Amino acid sequence: MLPSENRLRRRQDFATAVKRGRRAGRPLLVVHLSRDGDPRGQADRTSDFHPHVAEGTPSARAGFVVSKAVGSAVVRNLVKRRLRHLVRDRLSRLPAGSLIVVRALPPAGSASYHDLEHDLDAALKRLLRVEPTATAATGAGR
Questions:
Q1: Which among 66, 119, 60, 111 has a CA at the least distance from the CA of 90?
Q2: Run of H or E including 77
Q3: DSSP string covering 34-57, please?
Q4: Which has the closest alpha carbon to 31: 63, 8, 58, 77?
Q5: 95: pLDDT confidence band, cut at 50, 70 and 90?
Q6: What pLDDT score was predicted for residue 35?
Q7: Cβ–Cβ < 8 Å for 60, 96
């Protein structure tokens, strides 16, 4: 289970991560990562209510999309539980305030836990890779 402060709940937060974030597709899932920060503000998340969240530093938050194309309700819930567990262990690697949406594709319904783990790790590795600067990418400045 993800702690409350690490869950995406509002449609606007999902939309922000999908529209403004970067995307990495894998055979079993698509991961959207937005480093925009928390659009809601921090007053309600960094108070005495959540003492383990540092003052002024929003924690990363995650949401999941598992459509009916993945399988029956039992299969969809299994996939969501597996993805929540996998993401929970990886939230500390994400930049503070980032939003992540994991969308399961139809083959995820028949995939093993380890296959989901492999695809999630590969997608996160791609998304968290440091982008080369424009100068380095064009070869300018040599």
A1: 60
A2: helix 73-88
A3: E-S--TT-STTTSSTTSTTSPTT-
A4: 63
A5: confident
A6: 82
A7: yes
Of 9, 102, 101, 97, the residue nearest 53 (C-alpha): 97
Q: Kindly report the average pLDDT of the chain as a whole number.
A: 81
| Per-residue pLDDT, 133 | 52
- Distances in Å between the Cα of 6 and the Cα atoms of 70, 82, 88 are 24, 16, 8
Give pLDDT, residue 132.
54
Q: Any bridge partners for residue 43, and if so which?
A: none
Exposure string for 76-102, b = 16+ CB within 10 A, e = fewer: bebbbebbbebbeebbeebeebbbbbb
First to last CA, the chain: 51
Distance CA 118, CA 111 (A): 11
Beta strands in 3-141 (DSSP E): 22-25, 29-34, 61-66, 99-104
